[in-house]
Fold this protein.
Amino acid sequence: MKRWNGWGDETIDRPLADSALVFLEQRLGAGDRSPDLDFDEACARVGPSRLSADVMLDTSASARLCHAHGQSLPDWVAFRRDRLGPFPDAVARPESHADVRGLVDKARRLGAVIVPYGGGTSVVRHLAVVDDGRPVISVDMSHQNRLLDLDTHDRIATLGAGAAGPVLEAQLRAHGYTLGHYPQSFDYSTLGGWLVTRSAGQQSRRYGRIEDMLLGARVVAPGANLVIGGQVASAAGPDLRQILLGSEGRLGLVTEADMHVRPVPACEAFHVLFFADWTAAEAAARGIAQSGIDVSMVRLSNAEETDVQLRLVGHESAIAWLRRYIGWRGLGDRPCMMTLGVTADDRRTARRITGAALSIARQAGGISTGTRLGTVWAANRFAGAYARNALWDAGYAVDTMETAVCWSATAPTMNAMQRAAHDALAGFDERALVFSHLSHVYAAGSSVYMTVIWRRAADPEQDLAHWRALKAAVSRAIVDAGGTISHQHGVGRDHAPYLAVEKSDAGLAMIASVFDAIDPERMMNPHKLLPEAGDVG
Amino acid sequence: MKRWNGWGDETIDRPLADSALVFLEQRLGAGDRSPDLDFDEACARVGPSRLSADVMLDTSASARLCHAHGQSLPDWVAFRRDRLGPFPDAVARPESHADVRGLVDKARRLGAVIVPYGGGTSVVRHLAVVDDGRPVISVDMSHQNRLLDLDTHDRIATLGAGAAGPVLEAQLRAHGYTLGHYPQSFDYSTLGGWLVTRSAGQQSRRYGRIEDMLLGARVVAPGANLVIGGQVASAAGPDLRQILLGSEGRLGLVTEADMHVRPVPACEAFHVLFFADWTAAEAAARGIAQSGIDVSMVRLSNAEETDVQLRLVGHESAIAWLRRYIGWRGLGDRPCMMTLGVTADDRRTARRITGAALSIARQAGGISTGTRLGTVWAANRFAGAYARNALWDAGYAVDTMETAVCWSATAPTMNAMQRAAHDALAGFDERALVFSHLSHVYAAGSSVYMTVIWRRAADPEQDLAHWRALKAAVSRAIVDAGGTISHQHGVGRDHAPYLAVEKSDAGLAMIASVFDAIDPERMMNPHKLLPEAGDVG
């Protein structure tokens, strides 16, 4: 069963190592460990529904509670610290395109608002229920998860948009094919969610971002069923797929999508390298990204993140050995770790890619430790989010903030984001543990992905105050640096106040005009994506 | 000087070989060779302007004549057969973003309509002047053609949008960089034109389509200057670049664009291969496209096109030798020709790509003739359009029609398009010479590019009747096959009636709503792209 108030499966716990706890207390002080709200208490907070239960609409308190939140920090404060609500009035679980059509028609008749729900993994409050006077239906798409067609000649799979990563991949792999989309939220996030939030998977160097994989989609909008895209390549006017991608539910509910797929690769390995400093490591990452060498992933941790990751792994003797080895190879005590993914259809190609990428890395002074650490990384690639549960239980909050910028701006932006995070918490006399990595590299630049850990407070309002200051300061640092307000998480409620900097007022007007053409009553996930009066930026 | 009434430079003639003329007469009969209108006669057709000449606006008859048309067949009938008009009331030649801003403001004050003019190479009537009662200004962007900035660290070039291919590449190559965008119209078409019509270059396998190369653009719209895009990668809402791309001037005038560039490659070669039949050749093209082998181009002529190309080249003894060689290798007398582009940063990579691609081709029975024919192709890659002048003078009209479809639909669509062309002209008791190639291949499918040659008639109205029947029949065959109405030419006036099949009515409403948000008076290239009442489809 999915945890109702945290990340992942409730039978899986990944407690922190003792040494990690000691490290956190030394760096941040001890955090508050006030007990959580329990499930029954939480259900009791759910008030009466404005909608009548029927075969389509589940108005039970448990369903409404479990669909009221995602994984944004304010969501965590809500479900862990008893700051719950508002709740959707009902939860629907359609199983087909026709079900969704019927549901949207019904919602329209009822004057209700629809909030699409995929895997519930949004970290920017795509799922927030905003009470504007209308009843709210959360539409859980997870039952529409089947592989409907696979054309191996054209390499196109038609999939139900509610398919979460493991269900989607299992169906494709049974035929020898893969989509190759692996965001950290893979275990729960869904195809439809990936599409409307422009998700980027860990191996996007090989498989592309989700927008590169979409051939076409079927969408249930209030007034019509839309068929968007479907052309292999076209010069016939604007590409409407690129409006659907990133629409965050405001155009309608994606029910089915035609996706480019490819055969399951024969070889895959993740090589871990270390560099003496950031400058050398970034030069290697840029060199590989601009060379055209088709590695599947380049992931580069800064010195702080490298240090913290080695500490949090907890295998002290192995890590001590690794640190000695790195020191012996002359990299000093502040190394930066790079993980290089090599994915290929045959071993000869894998060897060639590995050789070419390692050669560029070595020219920048990189030292390879082989693939053992990379195998550990791969085995835990989707498990990182479980640390959030363990950290919270230990008295610490954690959040991540991210952007993408040109190479010239990569290090300055990363430093400005980290400084903003430290300064924001220093304003409350709190310390922050802050570290970053580049998660996706491109010819012109890179993403910057920053993690912040800080102490929970005794008062949940104080937790929220800390987060608001942190989020505002870092978001401001991002847009001031010319970065996108999100490279991979989307906009939701949390990033909406910053969108105008990136898109311009005219650009927002263009987007709003499209939504209004399709959804004049603004019943499809309103209050998300586009900024509204009263949003605090 | 650019030819006012045909393709290319007026000092360049590429007459047909005698053997080619004999072949055309045998296949099609002799065409009409009525003499053309001359330039002075044509200027005399230009009536008075509704605008007053000033430092911004050139109202001379010659300027207005030369900006009244593109390269669509109806354009040819207009300027060659005295069916001229309507004409723009003035031609403007802005030299900077500020000039364009001033010009658009002035046009707005005058209640005038703006038609953007890049290189004048549109084959679908993007440049047509439609008289809706308002004066029309043709904005010739060719003076805004400079490389404004080149960031080699991030590999981004900022360019004036009026830069035509040779001017653009010369400036980049002076620094060792290239955009790598080579449509057949390269000599005249401009960056801004490529962007707003979603152009695809011949080597798009390596460099991408123009939409893959765009980082961001500055656009002068009626009410505001727009800055669109600029993010390396983003999950922050819809991608507005993809609305600008394909907007065909309706959002505004693109003045400057930031483009991804790369170093000039060290090696380039074009290998020519022959296959016994289409099935084998298509299997090889698909195999290469799906393998991930990074050839820069795959171009595959069907048997008819292979035959015609060899005939029209005119080197009879060399071609006879080639035909004997192909026959001797057992490929029969209806071979299909493939041209494979190999472009790489070093010789080792070039050898690897060549080996991998030829290996797939050989498995499908392909016979390589090496790179000599490919070198001839490359030397003439932009000269093919000159054949239009020579054919017209010899009594023949020529047009091309194109789409893209999934691999499963490639051969059926090509055959349906060819049959439609034959049948349309057979309705007039006319024969057609029809042949096709795949010009751009993708993992999921391919473009299909068809050429039709037929006799000119003594009466220009008859020429237009032939063309209308041909265009309607082939366009209908394309949309019936599920293909895009254009893979690389755009929509303009000629394809607008077919756009709704591809985009849906709701999709067209989405596009119209964006244009109306930015240009409520519809002064920017109106009557293009979106279908209008009275359009004949």
Notes: Chain A has 19 helices and 18 strands.
